[in-house]
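Read as amino acids, tokens; as here:

___
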Amino acid sequence: MQNDDPILIVDDSAAMRQTLKSTLIGMGHPNVHAASNGVEALEQCRERDFKLIFLDWNMPEMDGLEFLKTYRREPENKDSVVIMLTASGDKRSILTAIENGANYYITKPVSPDVIKKKMDQIKARLADQGEMS
């Protein structure tokens, strides 16, 4: 993943969107976009190929799980990395998210350090996959 690859934050909390966006920009990722629900997110995904999506679960209009199912149905979205970022940390929720196409699952509240570590893991994973192909 390159620093200028587009990233989408999908969360109904304006404060969470702003905090995460500031964290990512501070880490050198200037191409950060935001949506307040799954419907807005799908509209943005039609306009742009996001390499990484941070996705909340509980949102109005279309929740994160429904967005994820819809998003993953499109073959061109199979390589995007999706991180569920939500308050629910029970095993069933995590399993459901992973079964429906989430690559990672982070429970809120989340610190910038956790986001940085996850971004480093994603970059390392993608670099390893690139070497294998």
Observations:
- The radius of gyration is 14 Å.
- The beta strands are 7-10, 32-35, 52-55, 81-86, 104-107.
- The mean pLDDT is 91.
- The longest strand covers residues 81-86.
